[in-house]
Every structure is written in structure tokens, then in C-alpha cells.
Amino acid sequence: MNLVPLGTSDLRVTPICLGTMTFGEQVSEADAHAILDRSLDRGVNFLDTAEMYSVPARAETFNATEKIIGNWLAKRPDARKKMVLATKVAGPSRGMPWVRNGATDVTPADIIAACEGSLKRMKTDVIDLYQIHWPVRHVPAFGAMYFDVEKSKKEDAKLTPILAQLEAMDKLVKAGKVRAIGLSNETPYGVHEFVRLAEQHGLPRVATVQNPYCLSNRTVENGLDETLHRLNVGLLAYSPLGFGALTGKYDASGFIGPGAPEQARLTKFESSRKQRWGRPEALEAARRYNALARAHGLTPTRMALAFCYTKWQVASTIIGVTSVAQLDEDLDAWGTTLSPELLQAIDQIRKEIRDPAV
Fold it and tell me: What is the CATH number that goes with domain 4-248+304-337?
């Protein structure tokens, strides 16, 4: 894999990124270290995490993933020099009282304190890519579909403005604690405003946006892709397998009930099933895409990943795994090309069902 640039930053990463939100919940520390070893040995230089991980989010595992990564980096001091390390500061509390005591805002001081905490947990002096996990303003996200104007009018004036967020990030960059900044779960407006204010005030310019992108959720292509292209901001595509539904493992059984894979995320965690990925229509869409893959001689996993790996919109695809075997399967899908006929069939399904996992 050739390295790709992230926006206008000096970061160069592999087009596949190892996501780690399962570390500390579904994946033990020992198994996580084995996955990290294998990923690095196979040439992946990009690692993404967050202060709120592992997932599903709960007080007992808050910060657990970063600690696991820090312990791994302490065991493999050679690894840090090879890695581009990304993490995130959590946005305003979304029913998580253990995150900043449930505060509904994220202040500049919160951003700086969160960064300091991540640095300490991961036992590193610098974070290569520091991201805001979700916007510090009212936006439709995580399954919400519509922008609420009245709620925005009522709430946004009480929240830290984008300029102040950028100024906090600037302090971290100038202190040598962060190399580049990014956003996550962002909208076209948010990206434009972050870039506009950065350029106007000489502040750090966002290098990336980390948003969902997969066969059952292609909302990036509803305008955000143009924004990212024209502003030279890289897309980090997360959930390329639709929380596992696009692997085919739920096709016969559904998410729960007889035959459902017991240790799979959407079977094991009720909270995950309540999200967009657990909607009945999202499963039905996945079944259609999975059947299409098999009809073209591909596994569902290979087709879903190849779709992301080969799209011009994507700078790097974030894969989340629970075993070395899954990691190898995902990495082995690199280099797969999808025929024009298959891509046309994929587009036809989308025309019929749109984006059920939005």
C-alpha cells in the first residue's frame, strides 16, 4: 500500500487504518496487543482511537482503549516511530455522565485537558492527529436525521464556538503535543466553517473528517464529498462493514435469536442494536448487498471493503476487528477491484433503498 496524504498536513498514512474501539470490551488486552503487532507487521502505519473508547461506551471502560495502546507502545518502543497515532476528544455528553460529569459543552480547557489525558494514557509525547469526536453544537448525528432549527437557536449560543475550539487546538499544536487536527461526525457546514476560520485567523486547518461510509450509509456522497474535495480535507471512513452486517454473519439469523452469532457486536450489545446499524431496514439492505457479492463470486466482506478501498472520496478506511483472523481477512481484501457491472448493481440497490443506516 502506498502512503496517502491527509489533507494539507504533513501526515502520510496507509489507506487502511486500524480502528480500536473494541479493545477493552470485546477484545482483551492480550488479544489487542496481538492485533496491533500483526497490523504493524503487515505494514499498517495508521492507528485510530478515542478517549471515550471502548464501545459500547460505559463508565467501567472509559479510557480503556487508550491505556491498552499505551501499554503496547511501552512494550514496543520501536512502534511509535512507525505509527501515525490518532485519537479524539469526546464532544458534549450524550447520556454519558462519566465524561466530564455529563457536561453539555466542551470548553477550550476541556480540549486541552482531554489531550493531556490521552497523551498520558498512551504514553506518548505527541498525538499525530487530534480530532473532535462529534460537533460542539446541535447537529443531526448518530441516527438523527433532521436538523432542528429551534433546538439549535436555544442551545448553540451556550456552547463553545468553533473559533474558540480552534484556538485551543492551536495551543496544543504550538506546544508540540498535536501535529494535525481533524473532525468527526461532521457536516458540510461544519467543515467549511472550521476551514474558513482557520484560514482567516491563522489557526490549524483541519486535515481530516472521520464519518461513517459504507454500502448501507453513503450519505457522505450527498454533498460532504464535494466539500472535502474542494477544501482538500481527507475522509476517514468508519464502519465500512456496517457494524458487521455487511460481512453476512447476520443474514440467516438476524441480530438476535436462534443461530445469531453470540459474540458479535449487534447480538451481544442491546445498545448497539438501538443504533442506526441495528435497524431492520439496515439488515435488509445488508442482505441485498451480501447476496450481490456472492452472486459475483466475492465474500460480502471483500466486496464491502473493496467498495471503500477504491472510492475516490476515501483517504483511509478504518477497520475494526476482534481477532487477528479478521484483521488478515480485511487486509487481504486490499487490491480487490469491483467490475463496472457490479458497481452499477450496487448503485441500483442504493437508488431503491437509499441509506437505511444513516
Answer: 3.20.20.100
